[in-house]
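Lab notebook page, bench 4
Experiment: in silico fold of construct C2
Operator: M.H.
Input chain length: 87 residues
Purpose: comparison with the prior construct
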Amino acid sequence: MILESPRHNTDYERVTYNLTLHTPSEDVGFKMDIVRSGFKQIAAVICNRVPQGRERSMALTALEDACMYAIAGLARAVEVPDEKDDK
């Protein structure tokens, strides 16, 4: 199974798709949990090693943004069947 972003012909179609709730399958939910876990580990390193201040705050904000986009990428992806499944 391969996940890829769906193709949209117009900006409106893309935005409408992105603003629609995408309930994840159990498999995708598991992948989301793994991604979140990795981001939490990185957040712990930042909080434990980087002194409080603007740079730490910016690093954590960037980490939250990256996690949000990674999870959205998983949620919005569509399943593409393997070629061998078609035969």
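Observations: The chain has one domain: 2-86. The chain has a mean pLDDT of 86.
Next step: discuss at group meeting.
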